[in-house]
Design a protein that fits this description.
Elements lengths: L7 E4 L4 E8 L2 E4 L9 E2 L1 E4 L5 E3 L1 H17 L7 E3 L11 E3 L4 E3 L1 H14 L8 E6 L5 H13 L4 E6 H10 L7 E8 L4 E9 L2 E10 L4 H20 L3 H5 L1 H21 L5 E5 L5 E4 L5 E2 L2 E5 H25 L9 E5 L6 H10 L12 H10 L6 H6 L6 E6 L3 E2 L3 E8 L12 E7 L9 E3 L4 E6 L5 E10 L4 E2 L1 E2 L2 E6 L2 E2 L7 E7 L6 E5 L11 E9 L12 E9 L12 E9 L12 E8 L5 E7 L4 E6 L11 H21 L5 H20 L4 H25 L1 H22 L2 H20 L2 H23 L1 H13 L9 H15 L5 H13 L20
Helix pairs in contact: 1-7, 2-3, 4-10, 5-7, 5-8, 8-9, 12-13, 12-14, 13-14, 15-16, 15-17, 16-17, 17-18, 18-19, 18-20, 19-20
Length: 851
């Protein structure tokens, strides 16, 4: 019989995956081919070009890695794991047997196919697939591509903390308050704050790290316990000096690290022991490797605590920005294998609150995903294709989840979808799964009737649907069951990042991120946002591909507004060219953007051009991927961060030395992590993401150090605006200036450089507009004259270009020019002033919109 609800939930994990479905109203984990609850997220290929997935692939991975150690040749690898950490990138996983390379999503598709194969009694066409809350759009798109490659006809992506909340909330007696989902998985970490009111759960804020997980723990044990032992007992200097050999050695030692981590979760000591010859390969002097290391829980705590502390810090920061402490949490819900660690549990108890261990950390996400799946209808086209029309077709409507003890269910017949006759008198009876409640027989027809059903509290309630004619003879129907979850209800998912575009501020020349109104972090999905006040920086001639508008879309972290875009996550560049426009669009034309984001964070945009009364619709494609980070480039960026800190220390007297030292320590840690895995694709992405955060901190320190100069500039611009308003303003502009004054008082009190700079830009724009309206072309002529008189006093970013532009403007000024002729020259001159700030390694910003 065709399922009316999706019912299948899949936890697509970094190191382990699981599938669950609703059976008789209950979420049930489906056993793997080895009768386990979870399956290693591992793929291998053998010499006969057969793809293996799961435990057999994991065993093959180990033998492949050991084989690579025998001849120190990594190209022989044909087994893969932890590829979830490179989702959304172009990282390639080569196979010598297949003579091709696989992408992360192709390997993930093999995991999904294998999970489907554990369902023997029906074909799985739809499912809910979970993703970390902090996955970027590119990573979610890659997951969607994997689901399509795996043959799912329909699917939805669900944030893992929502799934875990559903698994935990079912039957939980706490129906009000705050929960935190602490999801420390094999490759990612999520902290989600959940507000519960009368059993209705809503995720209100999230934080996390897409490159923090069990893999980091394993390699920490390798690099800080096992390799130091090898250095002391064997000659491995040449091996460690070679990036490829070093990675091979680390990968083989990782298995001993995993075993150590697991054993010390339940024991006080563990002996890492290998027989002579069990570890392949030889050291620099031809000696075989052998391990004999006794590791205590205190040794492990020394190594793992700094990594666990990162997750604890993220959780504490999440609580802090929501004005909560750990004592205000009703539940701290643990998810993920590493949360079994007594080291982590003790840290959480001391720094946050006592963790709740009532659910299985390994299967909670799959169970919750199945519960969520039981509330989502199968798409009509899939349902239609699988109908058994020989049975009487019914239409049901009811709440899938509720906190009420009774729910109304509407039942009616579907004659148009039923082959054969339907009795003139037809009765339905709804029977709860425990047989303790029945609706009795209720007559129904194609108009339908409403039946009140009674629910057992705090659990899924399965109901059977029985049909009878007037004589009491039974009839088969479809559907013949349905489920209602009582005691919990989940609100909508939220945006994990703000959606922003990169624009150039016309007054300052800065290229910065501008969040789209309505699409800020934590807004509920689906969501709609608008961006107004934008203008084109160049003309677009119809039919000319070289004339274009570029709208770079980014995902921004907390506080990303007004920062350099290069420090945020790039999603996609929307390009609109003259070929797409019906007629000429002059420079400086207005553009209005409407951006829609659906439940799976798919983005579409409407760009409206009032001058043309024309709208162009663009959907961000799901095929966008990020390039793998180049090791040499990343090395350069680390050096740049160190140089910027050094210059700050030399040039500024207004520095917080403690902040500087913390950033130095973080960059030193990043440098060490990078050196430990220069050839590891996800290690490089991890280091880059962390480095971006440090660059944002450096920018914040720069802003704070600039405050005295910024305060003086703020006051000067305000007094100049007051004078301009006295000459050319009116009552309305006077009110605006009064509003500016109120804002300035707050900004000076808080010493907020970012908002001060925005106020300076806004006041300059108003000043410019007032003078422009009052003087016409005299304004441009006056500006050119002032630039010429004070040329040597300005610290031009390109002195030669500024001189050339100024000479061009002065030459035009001698021939009775129009305002439109001089304005582009003046805008370019403003862009060459010291405050015209461009991001490092960014393109020149050609074609981006101005505001």
């Amino acid at each position: 019989m065709a399922r009316q609800k999706i019912d299948y939930g899949i936890d697509l994990g970094t190191t382990n995956s699981a599938i669950a479905r609703i059976e008789n109203g209950e979420p049930t984990i489906k056993k793997t081919d080895t009768q386990a609850d979870t399956m290693p997220s591992c793929v291998s290929i053998n010499k006969k070009k057969v793809i293996q997935v799961g435990l057999s692939a994991w065993n093959k991975l180990r033998s492949d890695r050991e084989g690579a150690m025998r001849n120190w040749e990594k190209s022989a690898m044909n087994a893969y794991i932890e590829f979830k950490r490179t989702m959304g990138t172009d990282t390639a996983y080569p196979s010598s047997y297949m003579e091709k390379s696989y992408s992360s999503e192709e390997l993930s598709a093999e995991i999904l196919k294998k999970l489907k194969s554990f369902i023997l009694d029906e074909e799985v066409k739809t499912a809910i697939v979970t993703v970390p809350a902090k996955f970027t759009i590119n990573q979610k798109d890659a997951t969607a591509r994997a689901a399509k490659l795996a043959g799912f006809e329909s699917f939805e992506l669900l944030q893992e903390p929502i799934a875990a909340s559903m698994a935990y909330g079912l039957g939980n007696k706490s129906k009000n308050g705050f929960w935190m989902v602490f999801d420390f998985g094999g490759g990612t970490f999520d902290a989600a704050l959940v507000k519960v009111e009368e059993g209705i759960m809503q995720v209100i804020d999230t934080e996390g790290d897409n490159y923090l997980g069990g893999k980091n723990l394993d390699y920490a044990i390798v690099n800080e316990i096992i390799i130091p032992y090898l250095e002391e007992n064997f000659a491995i200097a040449k091996i460690l000096a070679d990036d490829t050999k070093k990675q091979i050695l680390q990968d083989v030692m990782k298995y001993y690290a995993e075993e150590t981590k697991i054993q010390l979760s339940f024991n006080e000591t563990h002996n890492i022991l290998s027989d002579l010859g069990a570890i392949p390969g030889e050291d620099d002097e031809g000696n075989e490797f052998e391990l004999d290391i006794t590791v205590s829980r205190s040794d492990l705590e020394r190594v793992l605590s700094p990594i666990f502390q990162k997750s604890v810090n993220i959780s504490l920061e999440l609580l802090k920005r929501n004005n909560l402490g750990g004592d205000k949490l009703d539940s701290l819900i643990l998810v993920g294998g590493p949360t079994y660690s007594p080291i982590l549990r003790n840290m959480l108890k001391q720094q946050v609150c006592e963790p709740d261990t009532s659910i299985d950390p390994m299967t909670a996400v799959a169970v919750g995903a199945a519960l969520f799946a039981s509330t989502i209808d199968v798409p009509e086209e899939i349902l239609e294709a699988s109908r058994d029309k020989s049975k009487i077709q019914l239409s049901l409507w009811h709440e899938s989840t509720t906190v009420e003890p009774e729910v109304l269910v509407t039942v009616k017949t579907e004659p148009d979808k039923t082959d054969g006759d339907i009795p003139d008198q037809l009765y339905v009876e709804l029977v709860r799964g425990d047989k303790a409640w029945s609706s009795g027989k209720v007559e129904i027809n194609e108009t339908g009737d409403v039946i009140e059903v009674h629910l057992k509290e705090g659990k899924p309630n399965a109901f059977s649907i029985l049909l009878y004619d007037a004589q009491g003879s039974p009839y088969d129907c479809e559907p013949n069951t349905f489920t209602i979850i009582q005691g919990t209800k989940v609100g909508s998912a939220i945006l994990p990042y703000s959606i922003a575009i990169e624009i150039r501020n016309r007054a300052s020349g800065k290229v910065v991120l501008d969040p789209i109104k309505g699409l800020k972090k934590n807004n509920s999905l689906p969501a709609k946002g608008v961006a107004n006040g934008l203008k084109t920086s160049m003309q677009l001639r119809p039919g000319v591909a070289e004339d274009f508008i570029k709208i770079p879309i980014y995902q921004g972290e907390e506080g990303a507004e007004g920062t350099r875009a290069i420090h945020s996550e790039h999603v996609y560049d929307i390009i609109i060219t003259g070929e797409q426009l019906p007629s000429l669009l002059p420079e400086g034309s207005e553009v209005e953007l409407t951006v829609n984001v659906d439940n799976s964070e798919r983005i579409s945009m409407l760009a409206y051009f009032p001058f043309l009364d024309f709208t162009e619709e663009v959907t961000v494609p799901e095929s966008a991927v990020q390039k793998e980070v180049e090791a040499d480039w990343l090395d350069t960026q680390i050096k740049k961060a160190k140089q910027e800190l050094s210059m700050l220390e030399q040039e500024s007297e207004h520095l917080n030395e403690r902040e500087i030292e913390k950033i130095k320590a973080s960059i030193a840690d990043l440098e060490q992590r990078f050196e430990q895995g220069r050839t590891d694709g996800d290690r490089k992405k991890d280091v880059l993401d962390s480095l971006k955060r440090e660059f944002r901190k450096i920018d914040d320190i720069k802003d704070k150090a600039e405050w005295p100069k910024t305060e003086e500039e703020l006051k000067d611009v305000y007094f100049k605006l007051e004078n301009t308003n006295n000459q050319y303003g009116n009552d309305e502009t006077g009110k605006l200036i009064g509003h500016f004054k109120e804002q300035i008082e707050v900004v000076i009190k808080e010493k907020n450089v970012k908002i001060a700079n925005q106020l300076i830009d806004d006041m300059r724009s108003l000043d410019f507009a007032l003078v422009d309206a009052g003087l016409g072309v005299k304004l441009e002529l006056g500006i050119l004259h002032n630039f010429n008189e004070d040329f040597e006093t300005h610290d031009w970013s390109d002195r030669n270009k500024a001189r050339m532009l100024l000479n061009q403007g002065l030459q035009l000024a001698a021939s009775n020019p129009r305002k439109e002729q001089l304005r582009p020259i003046i805008i370019e001159l403003y862009r060459l002033l010291p405050r015209a700030d461009k991001p490092f390694d960014s393109p020149d910003g050609k074609g981006i919109l101005e505001k």
